[in-house]
Sequence to fold (218 residues):
Amino acid sequence: MNEFLDARQYAPATQRNREAILEVLLQVLPSTGTVLEVSSGTGEHAVFFAPRLIRHKWIPSDPNPVARASIAAWREYCPADNLYPPIALDVCDPVWEIEGDELPESLQEIDLKQEPIVAIININMIHIAPWSACLGLMAGAGRILPPGGILYLYGPFKQGGKHTATSNAMFDESLQMQNPEWGVRDLDEVVAVAETQSLSLVKTYTMPANNLSVIFQA
Fold:
């Protein structure tokens, strides 16, 4: 195996949740258009989803250069015509690179005016990031998504201020021990932030291992 492929990272949870997430995406994504995956992590979701959603262009992203190297390595290992190289994107930036007139060189062949970003996908991020990341994600989605565009979130959530499972409460405690700014978010608070950006909660789906898929629409 060459050094490039050795950059691949592995997240065991991806193998467990990708089929269930894909099932929801097939129901909620607009029929065509560009999908921006925010905080793509290892890249394993991107290489699984893109070839199964061939009517969409898939742009992975991550602020971490190590993660972007992993995404690029997975893309080399599992190429798909509609899967693009990862871009550097920090949700807390006031303007995302993809919003500018000058797109990253790796995306030059995409015409976002003809094939606009119709969906933003964010899996397992807001609980392992400061609350400011959730605020930034919602602000970016509010700026970028056209009317009818979809913001998809996946992860554990509290509901009505309470954990839905003992395992989630234990997970929340462990997260806050790692970083007091991390933690399982309350769905009501996330929805409230989304509404400030003109994003409406459409539906939630119960997912394996006490997670939720949460669908917002612009």
